[in-house]
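Subject: design request, 256 residues
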């Protein structure tokens, strides 16, 4: 539990008996961290991320994460962004718009089922020439082979995993798509927030361990050519040392 005093500019952490165990300034890195973790829980409970669009298409992502992902994409400037999980297509449109602004690159979106109305809307979008849709299970070898065939020799790739978020599925995606990510580039395993919000609305009892963050940790431990790369800002004149994100420990870099 926490108690925020906006007049004093402090946040207090309380134990289950209501006893104050910590007090932090809201201006401090620790104070920001405490408040933001509770705010993240509120965004989950209230389905806050279900209230945004990008260029006309729903995008179910935290805006903070979209900006952080933009920083990663601009750093790498990939030829191909591969995303598992299409949903309404908003994130595909987002990545395509960034690549168009950069002046290079295209997007491949993979989903086990691309609903007809979503496919129609994506294909009707003015950025659709930069988007290729692949329907099939993201962990089926046939699907991976189709995606691999879309990558030209020497092209730089960036991978984003946003489909089935169970640990086993994400770990399998990491194992299969890690072979497609370019040296020096990244795989982003999204929605490790499942571990943080376990026990809240719309969660399952096993989310504390069955989540993308645990898959990412296991993958890096077993694959020395990859390392965790925190999604820290490219620019920071503030006091924060932690970031508001649904993707904790989700960014994985392939070493050069």
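Subject: RE: design request

Done. Sequence follows.
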């Amino acid at each position: 539990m926490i108690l925020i005093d906006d007049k004093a500019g402090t946040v207090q952490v309380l134990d289950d008996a209501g006893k104050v165990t910590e007090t932090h300034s809201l201006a401090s890195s620790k104070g920001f961290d405490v408040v933001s973790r509770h705010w993240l829980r509120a965004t989950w409970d209230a389905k806050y991320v279900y209230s945004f669009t990008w260029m006309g298409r729903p995008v179910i992502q935290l805006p903070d994460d979209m900006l952080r992902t933009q920083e990663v994409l601009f750093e790498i400037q990939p030829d191909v962004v591969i995303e598992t999980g299409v949903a309404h297509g908003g994130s595909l449109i987002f990545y395509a718009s960034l690549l168009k602004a950069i002046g290079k690159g295209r997007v491949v979106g993979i989903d086990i089922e691309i609903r007809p109305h979503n496919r129609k809307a994506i294909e009707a979008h003015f950025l659709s020439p930069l988007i290729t849709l692949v329907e099939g299970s993201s962990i089926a070898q046939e699907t991976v082979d189709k995606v691999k065939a879309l990558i030209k020799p020497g092209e730089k790739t960036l991978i984003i995993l946003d489909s089935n978020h169970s640990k086993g599925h994400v770990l399998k995606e990491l194992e299969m798509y890690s072979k497609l990510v370019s040296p020096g580039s990244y795989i982003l395993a999204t929605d490790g927030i499942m571990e943080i919000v376990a026990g809240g609305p719309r969660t399952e009892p096993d989310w504390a361990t069955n989540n993308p963050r645990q898959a990412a940790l296991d993958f890096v431990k077993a694959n020395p050519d990859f390392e965790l790369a925190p999604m820290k800002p490219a620019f920071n004149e503030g006091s924060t040392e932690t970031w508001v994100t649904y993707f904790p420990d989700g960014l994985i870099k392939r070493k050069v």
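The chain is about 35% helix and 20% strand.
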